[in-house]
Amino acid sequence: MSKRKSGRSIGLIAMFLLVCGSCGDYGNYPLFNSQGHALVSVTSCNEARAYIAEMFTEQLLGGNYWGIRDGMVFDENTDAAAPQYPAPSDYTTTNVQEEGVDEADIVETDGEHVYVVHESDLIIARSWPPENTAEVGRVALGGHALSMFLHGDRVAVFSQSANDVFADEYRHSGTRVTLVDVSDRANPQILRQVDLEGWMVDARAIEGQVYLVMNAYLNAYRYDLHSLKVGIDVDWRNAPNPKLARLRAKYQLLPRVMDFVADLPLSDILPKKIEHNQRTPLLRCSDLYRPGRVVQPGIATVVSLDMHAATDPISATGVLGGGMEVYASLDNIYLAQSSWAWMWGDEQEVETHVHKLSFDSRGDAPAYQASGRVSGWMLNQFSMSEHAGFLRVATTDSTWWDDSGGNNVFVLKHSGRELNVVGELVGLSPGEQIFAARFLGDRAYLVTFLQIDPLHAIDLSNPYKPRELGQ
Questions:
Q1: Start-to-end CA span in the chain (Å)
Q2: 344-381 tens-digit pLDDT
Q3: What is the C-alpha separation between 66 and 303, in angstroms, rounded?
Q4: C-alpha torsion 239→241→242→245, nearest 10
Q5: Across all residues in the chain, what is the average pLDDT?
Q6: 51: helix, coil or strand?
Q7: pTM
Q8: Distances (CA, A) of 293 to 19, 84, 362, 409
């Protein structure tokens, strides 16, 4: 170690001892700052409290960076009996990324009927033969409709919860799941309606088993925690050494937040569900996983729901921190979060964390498997692809504040609790950004943009040595 690095380390340790001289037993105030990628199972509610307390503390110290369509109208014709015609020989379905993994849509069809979510209704229209198209059924959802799944005679509709049942000044409204029996298209029946706290990120379905991903924001100001800053110099940005000033303020503030959270019911923090007018926890502490270090203050929840079992319990898995991009194969679901959506970071790098959860048992919430980290930010779900036991990820290093980076393709392999990078191709088209990515078997195709649109073709047949075939 160089003298300069050694001196800096000694200085940080000395500063820590100075500001924490009155902190008591350091073990009472754990700092979640490990460098590993894997999530850690939350083993107790006290551990959940400690992690949430540090989330709130970081939020109080850090800066924030936050980054009705017209629908179909059908002529009602419910009284006229439809003439008998042979069923259509073929019809379109939702365009999906992976065969067998359905994606939520605003329009579905079974060939003879079209199902549309519009405003706050599910509309069912006879579509075959075309000249007899007419609305035959309608279901009021009680909130603005977002998307849906169709499987057999069941429709699962996602909408915004009615009347903001979870909302207050600092909370987002919830997501309503309405399960509808459409075996009689003219008389659809609601089988189940449940409100889940959080806003919908995306959803996938496999053979009628729905996996809904939501984010719920945790806001320290909802609990008036800003009052705990009294007497602490939190203006670290204007200090001669901002990093040391922020760390000093954190170690003075964290014990106060910990003491406050210790007396706060977790039922007031963790996401909830409302069904049959009963408000109950959506998650238990044992359903939670946390990163090794604190990221944005929130909880990403993956909810599992069977469209054909209206009375089965709803199960869920929670990730403290959040996830904004969702990709699923037939066996696994991946949540990804790029760091430029995080709320703080003294020496923030542009990187993407990916968490893998598996569909080990249909009906149960996905089980956490492993996590990984790659350089750059991710565009969307098509930036991920699972193939032959490997996860391929496409990222961009350039950002709105620095356009000097390039574009990358990483190959990750699951080992233990880690998604390890085993192959990479980096630095493609420096100064540009990925505007489209597609993985097709052993090939990847990237479109970047500056003044023209370069198309990169990449060979991934050897996952350990990706190579560019042409541009």
A1: 43
A2: 444 557 889 999 999 976 668 899 999 999 999 999 99
A3: 25
A4: -80
A5: 83
A6: helix
A7: 0.83
A8: 21, 63, 31, 25
